[in-house]
Amino acid sequence: MTIRSEPSSVEVARRITRAWARYHCPLPNDQVDALLIVMSELCTNAVQHGRRDSFGVRVWMPTAGELRFEVDDKTPSAPPSLENPENEAESGRGLFLVDILLKELGGTWGFSEDGSCAWCALPLPGTGR
Length: 129
Description:
3 helices; alpha+beta
């Protein structure tokens, strides 16, 4: 789906992702909640750092045992890296949160080579992965 690049759109992406995950994936509620935090962080980055009027969100199951999603701001740049913000900083911890939550879920994540697209992959429960 294509979403307008504005702060209120992050909640729209969360609602759509929540509905999709609950009706199409065998994820427990706590894992859906963690996924929604990850989605919020990546969509917020697309709104804050993208230079287009919209960004794309794609959620699908490429195999029976995997959930994959992408947030594409269509703005090529150097892929972001984990930073160590100052203790008093009010932002800059989002990718740390993404990293921790996806590790807890047994997933992986990263960015496309051109830095425009963040991706995440999660194994689905009960698939032996």
